[in-house]
Design brief:
Elements: H1 10-41, H2 50-78, H3 83-86, H4 88-91, H5 94-122, H6 124-129, H7 133-149, H8 154-157, E1 158-162, E2 165-168, H9 173-217, H10 233-260, H11 269-287, H12 293-300, H13 302-329, H14 346-355
Helix pairs in contact: 1-2, 1-11, 2-5, 2-7, 5-7, 5-9, 5-10, 9-10, 10-11, 10-12, 12-13
């Protein structure tokens, strides 16, 4: 950005500080949050639900995206370090490939979850017979394989042109210049976004329809829902709706900006600085979609919150037991079997079990 070398414009200051603060915050929060998601989603109560399968895969995909896309882009804009050119033999093909694999997988997981939840709220029989955890695992794996293969052409189309240059092969110039951006826009943005929006609209419509039917059959207040008393269906649907809303809010502006990017004014250095600031803003807005899922799950999912509280309680109990054992273990001297405690006493175990 030679037009910003002397910081002649206010937009240059804004762009400078955005790249030095927000992505680093996203990396720290997103990494911790997604690791916590993985811990909570594998707990026994959470493993019983198909949504947990997709959310587990989503947490892994979001982690990969943060470290293979957000980190390299931050290094490029903050330290002027382009990993693809600095280490072309390692990152020339792998970075763009991993970017599209992880980003595309995350987007399509949300799309599949939206469609599945819509079908689940529409048909009890389908939910019990077809929309099972086993089928969710199979669907997640098949989806990953498709996303894995989708951008594999990078290993053919990109090549190391010199010691510090990673560029596309001349035979792929038209493909990467004109065709591939359109494919990415349609396959990884427009189609999944349409599925996510229509799926969530369908969920809301099905839930309202079911409530109306229940009120006609039994006007008394309902304590269970239509899925055989499974009280997690509505919280799961609510959680998916909030996640999808954040996805739409963070993705649509970026998608529209990418479509209009070539039409923006770039005739003067000031115009270039404005465009670069907009590019920075919408790009970081997109990154937010891969960062805050833990907080969205915690706020919107009552079951997730319960499992988080149980996890924190379990960790606290283990730490408390360790603190009781440590002083005795470090005492040394004349230790006898009658005075050494290597774990909770019988009374303490009874008390802990009663609490659990």
């Amino acid at each position: 950005m030679s037009y910003c070398d002397n910081f002649e414009f206010g937009e240059c200051y804004a762009t400078y500080w955005i790249w030095r603060t927000i992505p680093i915050f996203f990396l720290a929060v997103g990494t911790c949050g997604n690791l916590l998601n993985l811990i909570i989603l594998v707990r026994p109560r959470m493993r019983k639900y198909t949504t947990s399968v997709y959310l587990f895969a989503l947490a892994i995909s979001d982690l990969v995206f943060l470290w293979t896309t957000v980190l390299p882009r931050t290094l490029e804009n903050v330290q002027d370090i382009d990993l693809s050119n600095m280490y072309p033999k390692v990152f020339c093909q792998t970075l763009p490939w991993m970017n599209h694999v992880s980003g595309g997988y995350s987007v399509w997981l949300l799309a599949v979850m939206s469609v599945e939840r819509m079908l689940m709220t529409k048909s009890i029989l389908l939910a019990r017979t077809k929309l099972t955890v086993k089928n969710a695992v199979i669907c997640s794996f098949v989806l990953f394989v498709i996303c894995f293969l989708f951008p594999l052409h990078y290993f053919i189309g990109f090549e190391v042109q010199s010691v510090l240059a990673c560029e596309w092969n001349e035979h792929f110039g038209d493909f990467y210049g004109d065709i591939w951006p359109v494919i990415v826009l349609v396959v990884l943005n427009i189609i999944p976004m349409v599925l996510i929006i229509t799926g969530n609209i369908g969920i809301i419509r099905n839930v309202i329809k079911q409530k109306q039917q229940l009120q006609r059959v039994n006007p008394l207040p309902q304590t269970t829902n239509v899925h055989g008393g499974n009280k997690t269906v509505k919280p799961m649907s609510k959680m998916l709706f909030i996640i999808s809303t954040v996805f739409v809010i963070s993705t649509i502006p970026f998608t529209i900006f990418q479509i209009l990017w070539l039409q923006l004014d770039n005739s003067t250095p000031h115009a270039l600085a404005r465009r670069d600031l907009l590019d920075t803003f919408f790009e970081n807005l997109l990154y937010a979609n891969f960062t805050f899922n833990f907080f969205l799950y915690f706020v919107s999912g009552s079951l997730f919150k319960q499992e988080w509280n149980a996890f924190v309680k379990s960790v606290s109990q283990h730490l408390g037991a360790f603190n009781r054992v440590a002083p005795l273990a470090n005492a040394g001297g004349t230790e006898t079997p009658n005075t050494i405690t290597v774990g909770p006493t019988l009374a303490e175990s009874h008390r802990l079990n009663s609490v659990n």
